[in-house]
Please model this.
Amino acid sequence: MSREITVGVVQHANTGDYAGDVATSVQGIRRAVAQGANLILLQELHAGLYFCQVEDTNNFDLAETIPGPSTDTFGALAAELNVVIVCSLFEKRATGLYHNTAVVLETDGSVAGCYRKMHIPDDPGYYEKFYFTPGDLGFTPIQTSVGKLGVLVCWDQWYPEAARLMALAGAEMLLYPTAIGWNPDDPTDEQARQREAWIAVQRGHAVANNLPVLSANRIGFEGDPSGQTAGSQFWGSSMVVGWQGELLAQADTESATELVVTLDLDRTEQVRRWWPYLRDRRIDAYGDITKRYRD
Model:
């Protein structure tokens, strides 16, 4: 028995020119579809620079509604190419209320569902709490014509709880639109440790949940508009990970590229028979997991 899906992960740099960055994403989608992809994952906030390096109220002008420009553009493209697209945008939900949102567009161009980023960082160069209200849609997979998608966003990828809750709700794969990079001032050995940790934690989610993982990250240097930091060098390394943590495909740290991989979603059944983590979970003993800390 086989239930195959061909996935495409698009990695590219951003310039801050909205029309140009959208065109770059569209070109990547077209190239991946030409290679057989019927599900596309784009990187976090792919239609512009990563503006969260600085707190600036003018950046709220970048937000858009759902439906809006991105869902119109990528919905039309999804319908034209008969493909499911996961795009990422700065959502204006209401005046004064904004989210970091991933939107899943069906093959007919309709919105299959949304995920609003739950874990919001607030660190030098990543001042997301200034812009984004934490998500309120929970860890709920989105049903599509190509499968049930466990969509999460960037900082969410460091939390095993998020991946597990998606798996427990029936997600058939985990997808992470991402924007993460090095501080150019960090020594090279520290940069290497950070990137390897990022790869390792996502491979761990695949292993612990017996699910494939897709991660799309941007590349290129983006300066800090405030001049207070050295900016961010995004490390790319987008990847498709198999059910036992194997790297099925991975991009490098510098090149715009598309990863295209065929997955058999029925493999989860086989691997979970070998490694029955869900069967052996001690749910009677996990009550303290909802505490901030066990004092």
Remarks:
- DSSP finds six helices and 17 strands in the chain.
- The chain has a mean pLDDT of 97.
- The chain has one domain: 4-290.
- Residues 29 and 237 are 18 Å apart (CA to CA).
